[in-house]
């Protein structure tokens, strides 16, 4: 049990010396994690039967020694997750965060900055406004664009689609229809469900050969729907699908949306941050014409979770969708120049997520971020070439936007078994998906700390396992 001099339970306080001691241990743990993670496994997925009992039981009535608690976390919690920031974590969408982002989170949480209103967090709001401006400029969006930080791509998509619903349908959603390809992330369908759309209002269109939304079939679907009395109102384009990194033809989609008077939302949760680098800018042509964009700095902009962002071309449309002015907030709504982020999204109490982007972009400089993004493109191309150079491996979707999909042989179960074997082995991790009905393995190479040697050794490991099977 912790001594009384170290912990003052009546005030929920630690002594100053103890705060420092504990805090330094936490920082040491994090610094070691960042410095040494590549030497360890990519983490682990625990068996519920084994891991749940480690944390069962109510909290003790009496204080516990925080150092013992930290040791328990060190032993039981941190190793028993997947390390999505590990240089050989190629699964799903990795989370290659950076140390400065982590420290910014600590500061934002330590000062418990309230970033819901200007009254509560004026400097935080000023920083967030600036970072949002950076993103608007990166994406090529005009001056009156605005937006805010949210927990991630899912909430960004929902926030944008609600703004679209409010602006284009005045919230009368009967027979309104939304269009997107079958490669679109499930968060779009979930967001539409949450904001009241029924399944028969959602149009999931088959993708083309390159896994992109086909403008011709979209155009035909819109015409057919109008003739049948539906009310087309929104198209969702992908700026990098989760499956293959495919980018929908945004310029053509923007032309069609302009002609048909439809809202164009771009789900750039995975890929939009790539616009910072020349390679990304080239791939993402047309992004600047979106009515709204979701962008996840906690993916390809190397921030720690939860850091999503939504941009809306006309920020007043976000405000008219979300602003409510209750009596108990009457003191916060006075000066029009004072931006209250609670007026632009779902959260009132919200943390200072913009700080991590601000601190890490300033610390490392923009060029470092551009180079880190470019490296993601190059590593996927490198992985593709390595696979092509070996017998038995087939490329199902060539490298694009730091993603390449492939398989060994023709057997679906083999790909799943390979993934499971990699997970048990722990050296590196890839996950699978389905492309045109067959199971594919997938490399997502957005971690700038990944080396060519990591890719080679991961492929060697896969190749060995595949041939053993
Ligand atoms: C294309 C795309 N959209 C949306 C999301 C959802 O983002 P989040 O998990 O941050 O909510 C993801 C997540 O991987 C994604 O890849």
Portion in helices: 40-55%
What is the N-to-C succession of helices and strands? Answer: EEHHHHHEHEHEHEHEHEEHHHEEHEEH
Query: What does the overall shape look like?
Result: globular
Distance between the termini: 52 Å
Listed once per kind, the bound small molecules are: pyridoxal-5'-phosphate
> What's the assembly state of these chains?
single chain
What's the story with the biggest beta sheet? 7 strands, mixed
Poorly predicted regions are none
Number of helices: 15
Attribute tags:
single chain; 469 residues; seven-stranded mixed beta sheet; four-stranded antiparallel beta sheet; 15 helices; binds pyridoxal-5'-phosphate
Task: Please describe the topology of this protein.
Elements: E1 7-8, E2 13-14, H1 16-36, H2 48-51, H3 66-77, H4 99-110, H5 122-139, E3 146-150, H6 153-169, E4 176-181, H7 186-194, E5 202-205, H8 215-227, E6 231-238, H9 250-260, E7 263-268, H10 278-283, E8 292-295, E9 308-312, H11 315-322, H12 354-364, H13 366-388, E10 393-400, E11 403-408, H14 412-425, E12 431-435, E13 438-444, H15 452-468
Parallel strand pairs: 4-5, 4-6, 6-7, 7-8
Antiparallel strand pairs: 1-2, 3-9, 8-9, 10-11, 11-13, 12-13
The protein binds pyridoxal-5'-phosphate (PLP).
């Amino acid at each position: 049990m912790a001594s009384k001099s170290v912990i003052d339970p009546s005030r929920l306080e630690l002594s100053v010396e103890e705060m420092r001691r504990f805090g330094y241990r936490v920082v040491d743990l994090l610094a070691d994690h960042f410095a040494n993670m590549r030497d360890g496994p990519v983490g682990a997925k625990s068996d519920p039967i084994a891991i749940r009992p480690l944390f069962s039981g109510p909290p003790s009535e009496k204080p516990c020694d925080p150092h013992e608690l930290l040791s328990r976390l060190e032993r039981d919690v941190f190793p028993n997750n997947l390390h999505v920031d590990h240089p050989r974590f190629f699964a799903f969408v990795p989370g290659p965060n950076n140390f400065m982002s982590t420290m910014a989170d600590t500061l934002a949480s330590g000062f418990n900055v309230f970033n819901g209103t200007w009254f509560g967090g004026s400097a935080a709001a000023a920083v967030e406004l600036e970072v949002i401006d950076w993103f608007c400029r990166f994406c090529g969006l005009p001056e009156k664009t605005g937006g805010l930080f949210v927990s991630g791509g899912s909430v960004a998509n929902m926030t944008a689609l609600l703004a679209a619903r409010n602006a284009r349908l005045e919230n009368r959603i009967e027979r309104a229809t939304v269009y997107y390809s079958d490669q679109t992330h499930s968060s779009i369908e979930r967001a539409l469900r949450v904001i009241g759309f029924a399944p028969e209002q959602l149009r999931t269109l088959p993708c083309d050969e390159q896994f992109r939304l086909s403008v011709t079939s979209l155009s035909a679907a819109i015409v057919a729907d109008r003739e049948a009395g539906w009310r087309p109102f929104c198209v969702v384009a992908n700026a990098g699908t989760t499956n293959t990194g495919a980018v929908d033809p945004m310029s053509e989609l923007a032309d069609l949306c302009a002609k048909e008077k439809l809202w164009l939302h771009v789900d750039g949760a995975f890929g939009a941050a790539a616009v910072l680098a020349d390679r990304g800018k080239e791939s993402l042509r047309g992004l600047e014409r979106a009515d709204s964009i979701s962008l996840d700095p906690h993916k390809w902009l190397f921030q720690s979770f939860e850091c999503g962002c939504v941009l809306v071309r006309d920020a007043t449309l976000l405000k008219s969708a979300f602003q409510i002015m209750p009596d108990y907030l009457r003191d916060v709504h006075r000066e029009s120049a004072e931006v209250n982020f609670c007026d632009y999204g779902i959260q009132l109490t919200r943390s200072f997520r913009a700080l991590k982007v601000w601190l890490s972009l300033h610390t490392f400089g923009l060029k470092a971020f551009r180079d880190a993004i470019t490296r993601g493109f190059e590593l996927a191309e490198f992985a593709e070439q390595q696979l092509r150079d070996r017998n038995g491996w087939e490329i199902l979707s060539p490298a694009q936007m730091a993603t390449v999909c492939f398989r060994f042989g023709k057997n679906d179960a083999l790909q799943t078994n390979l993934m499971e074997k990699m997970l048990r082995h722990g050296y590196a991790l890839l996950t699978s998906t389905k492309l045109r009905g067959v199971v594919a393995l997938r490399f997502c190479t957005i971690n700038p700390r990944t080396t060519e040697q990591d890719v080679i050794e991961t492929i060697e490991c896969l190749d060995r396992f595949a041939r053993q099977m």
